[in-house]
Amino acid sequence: MKLTSYTNYALRSLQLAALHAPDLVRVDDVVRIHRLARPHIVKIVYELGKAGYLETRRGRGGGFRLSRPANEIIVGDIVRLTEGSMDVVECFNLANNTCPLIGICRLSRKIKQATAAFMTVLDDVTIADITANKNDLLDRISSLH
Question: Which residues touch 46 (CB under 8 Å, ≥6 apart)?
Fold first, then answer.
């Protein structure tokens, strides 16, 4: 499975917010620490705010923070939000399928099982889990200043 950069950046933004909770994190902090494009992070923070994962404040002294505890934010939910359809292969989307083997192909069933297993693992991980080594993460981040 390969996730988009958008998902990766969303998870990094949530992780950074959890590391600095309850303080606000600035978009420019994410951009600087992870060397990402500012417009992408602005869009991600907006979308995560709209979805209820981040509280955002605009203007001078603004930024974002988690809007709920890190242990309540499930990585699998973020992946579903940012990735949209998990149609790994064409035949998963019946509206666009052109494969004549639909319904009898064992490969598509195995790929569907693999996708489900992948998401099951991510459904068992929270933002708190990916920040459990907080001191190590903060030490690494501080060396990037």
Answer: 56
